[in-house]
């Protein structure tokens, strides 16, 4: 299956809470640019999309959804900045098995996006992600190992 992991777009530095930080205009533009590049690579449809409940992640999905299609978009409380990567990987694997997913997009935050990438690949260090960064991992559900196919940056 293909696992796509995207970091939210650039957000304002200050808000009443971290959860309420909104995207900047540049964050919207950069996210759309990366989504367009992903679409141009032939990846424009996902079996499932999981989005963090934080405002900046939700706004990122709103910015990119014109480039992507999915019949199943869900808010996932487990993919906030300090979610547990191992738990998220297990959750995604269970979803993939039960729902026969061939592709999934997760829109999340640092540091989790780096840890998820490392855990889906296996034997890898967590890479740094720029805002709006997107990776594509070819993941084998049975062996629980993957290979990064490409990495898009704004």
Automatic annotation (TrEMBL):
<dbReference type="Pfam" id="PF00300">
    <property type="entry name" value="His_Phos_1"/>
</dbReference>
<keyword id="KW-0378">Hydrolase</keyword>
<dbReference type="GO" id="GO:0016787">
    <property type="term" value="F:hydrolase activity"/>
</dbReference>
<dbReference type="InterPro" id="IPR004449">
    <property type="entry name" value="SixA"/>
</dbReference>
<dbReference type="InterPro" id="IPR029033">
    <property type="entry name" value="His_PPase_superfam"/>
</dbReference>
<protein>
    <submittedName>
        <fullName>Phosphohistidine phosphatase SixA</fullName>
        <ecNumber>3.1.3.-</ecNumber>
    </submittedName>
</protein>
<dbReference type="InterPro" id="IPR013078">
    <property type="entry name" value="His_Pase_superF_clade-1"/>
</dbReference>
